[in-house]
Amino acid sequence: MLGQLDYVVNFLTYLAVTIPILAVGIFVFTITTPYKEFDLIKQGAQTDDPKKMAAAKAASHDLGGKIIGLAIVLASAVYHSVNLWDLVIWGIVGMVFQVIIFYLFEWVTPFKVVSEIPNGNVSVGIFASRLSIAAGLLMAALISY
Predict the structure, then answer these.
(1) What is the DSSP letter of 121?
(2) Residue 52 pLDDT more than 70?
(3) 3-state SS of 116-140?
(4) Alpha-carbon distance 74 to 61, whole Å?
(5) What is the mean pLDDT of residues 71-97?
């Protein structure tokens, strides 16, 4: 019975560290883009304007992909980490990596991602999302000892 309690405490401890890292990641993602994802999403939900609705979809795909990408990295870090500090370090690296991937995408494309998403280009938001998920999968695979 005592062994079972250790597993529960370990689960709760890692959960108590992982959820705030994910929340900080969402905050970091929203302050490192020139557009405000949550404002775009809110405006799209409160209007019948097709352009605002499309901008909301593009922003939600973009931000959602970054969140999924970071969650994938965190899942791998929980599995491979040797202690909580190791998990925190990999979480920070995952956040930074997602931001770098976004700006690399901005740099290599012939259009401006930072203007296409707020202008309602859903395909750019979806592509950015998939790129973030792919980056998260690759980084997760690289975490090993």
Answers:
(1) -
(2) yes
(3) HCCCCCHHHHHHHHHHHHHHHHHHH
(4) 20
(5) 94
